[in-house]
Amino acid sequence: MSASPDSRRQSSNRLVAFALLAFFAGMVGMAYASVPLYRVFCQVTGYGGTTQRTTQYASKVLDRKITVRFDANVAGVPWDFQPEQREITMPIGETVQVAFRAKNLDTKASSGRATFNVTPQAAGAYFMKVECFCFTDNTLKPGEQIDMPVVFYVDPAIADAPETKHIRTLTLSYTFYPIETEKPVAQAKDSQEKNQPNAEPKIGG
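The structure assignment produced for this chain is given below.
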């Protein structure tokens, strides 16, 4: 005995509703996962000028040289932030060390964290950082100055890839952003008490 048209219609409606619900759940899951997945994707592929982190050195050094320029910026941090040298010309595959210098110009301590990128963006996958201060919290006292090293090399594979083999100059750029630091317990308590409304005066004895 075949199902009635109404029964088939109800079954079809349930199937469509289930499919829409599954699609919605998948979209929500992708939204939550998109940020970390995008970050991993950038780190693996170098997309968006994201450099690569490594603990190994290049297995060969090419006769061809490449120029790396250094750019330093601040966004809301009261620091003077500069590279110790503006550019360096180096053999591709050779490991070099450079340094950036930061000084707190404010009258109170402040904290910052640096982000970075490489341009042209296609070269990001071939810029290999062995040591770097990026994504590390740094707190400077008033007038304090620190030197921050960067150890890196440019992967020799950059000379073979069709999209990068003609690149002769890279720019490594850092930007420091402010970060919030936790207040000491006593300071936080005093601040909390100051923010509380004044108590009503008592009437009577």
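Interim note for the steering committee: The longest strand covers residues 65-74. The chain has a mean pLDDT of 77.
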